[in-house]
C-alpha cells in the first residue's frame, strides 16, 4: 500500500526482498509476498471510531501464500499517526516468507526482523485473540525499549516431536508466562519460564499439528508458529 499517488512504479515481483527496495514506490507500507490470485481474494477498507481517534483498516482477505490462504490488515491510527501491520489468520498449508515494513523512499526503509522470510504466526480462526501485530512508531528510539528487551527468542527444533528448547537472544527470561494454543485459540499447555536464557518444555502430550507458542508478561506478548510432528 502506497501514499505516493503520483508513482509510476510497476507492481513488484511476487518474491519479497529487504527494504528499502527499488521495486517499491516511496511512502509504502508492506505486506510483501501475499498474492491475490483466487476468486475469493479481496481488499476491504473500513474506518472505525470518531475523530480525532479513528482507525482506518485496509484488510487483505484470503490472499494466497503458497498453496494456503492468509489474512492481513494494515491499520492507520489517527492522532498518534502510528501504523500497525496485523497478522490475523491463515491455513495450515501456507508456504513462503514475507517482508513486513515501511519504505520511506528508495534509500530509507524499516522492515521487521526476519524479512523477507517473516512467517505468519496467528492462529487458524477468525477470532482476534490469536492475532499478532507489528507496531510502527515515528519517534526517537529510547535506550531501554520494551520490545527490544523482550523480543528475540528462538524455539527449536521446529517441527518438534519431544522436548522443545526455548532460547533467548537477549537477556534471560524473567517473570514470563508461556502458552501453547491450538488452531482454535484454546490453550493446551502453559507454564512459567525459568530465569535463564534457555529452558526446555516437554511436548509429548501434544497431538501432531500446527500450534501457536506465545510468550508474555504484563508489558508485552510475542508468539511463534509451532509444528508438532509424530516422529
Please describe what this structure looks like:
This protein is mainly beta. The chain folds into 2 domains: 28-136, no CATH class; 148-228, Immunoglobulin-like, CATH 2.60.40.3080. The chain is 2% helix and 43% strand. It has a 5-stranded antiparallel beta sheet with strand order 2-3-4-5-8, with no helix packed on it. A 4-stranded antiparallel beta sheet has the order 12-11-14-15, with no helix packed on it. The chain has a 3-stranded antiparallel beta sheet with strand order 1-6-7, with no helix packed on it. It is globular and about 55 Å long.
What is the share of helical residues? under 10%
Number of helices: 1
Estimated structural class:
mainly beta
Number of extended strands: 15
How many domains? 2
How would you describe the shape? Answer: globular
Q: Kindly report the average pLDDT value.
A: 86
- Strand order of the main beta sheet, please? 2-3-4-5-8
Strand content: 35-45%
Topology:
Elements: E1 28-32, E2 42-48, E3 55-65, E4 68-77, E5 83-90, E6 99-105, E7 108-111, E8 132-136, H1 146-150, E9 153-156, E10 163-168, E11 177-181, E12 187-192, E13 198-202, E14 209-216, E15 221-228
Antiparallel strand pairs: 1-6, 2-3, 3-4, 4-5, 5-8, 6-7, 9-10, 10-13, 11-12, 11-14, 14-15
Amino acid at each position: 500500500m502506497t501514499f505516493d499517488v503520483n508513482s509510476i512504479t510497476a507492481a513488484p515481483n511476487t518474491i519479497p526482498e529487504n527494504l528499502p527496495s527499488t521495486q517499491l514506490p516511496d511512502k509504502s507500507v508492506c505486506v510483501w509476498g501475499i498474492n491475490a490470485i483466487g476468486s475469493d481474494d479481496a481488499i476491504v477498507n473500513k474506518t472505525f471510531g470518531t475523530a480525532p481517534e479513528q482507525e482506518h483498516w485496509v484488510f487483505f482477505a484470503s490472499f494466497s501464500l503458497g498453496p494456503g490462504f492468509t489474512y492481513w490488515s494494515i491499520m492507520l491510527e489517527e492522532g498518534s499517526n502510528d501504523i500497525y501491520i496485523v497478522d490475523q489468520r491463515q491455513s495450515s498449508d501456507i508456504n513462503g516468507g514475507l517482508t513486513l515494513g515501511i519504505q520511506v523512499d528508495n534509500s530509507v526503509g524499516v522492515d521487521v526482523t526476519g524479512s523477507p522470510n517473516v512467517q505468519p504466526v496467528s492462529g487458524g480462526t477468525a477470532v482476534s485473540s490469536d492475532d499478532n501485530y507489528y507496531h510502527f512508531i515515528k519517534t526517537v528510539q529510547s535506550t531501554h525499549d520494551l520490545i527490544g528487551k523482550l523480543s528475540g527468542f528462538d524455539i527449536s527444533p521446529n517441527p518438534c516431536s519431544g522436548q522443545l528448547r526455548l532460547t533467548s537472544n537477549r537477556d534471560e527470561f524473567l517473570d514470563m508466562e508461556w502458552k501453547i494454543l491450538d488452531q482454535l485459540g484454546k490453550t493446551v499447555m502453559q507454564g512459567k519460564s525459568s530465569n535463564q536464557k534457555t529452558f526446555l518444555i516437554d511436548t509429548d502430550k501434544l497431538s501432531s499439528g500446527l500450534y501457536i507458542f506465545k510468550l508474555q508478561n504484563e508489558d508485552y506478548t510475542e508468539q511463534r508458529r509451532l509444528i508438532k510432528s509424530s516422529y
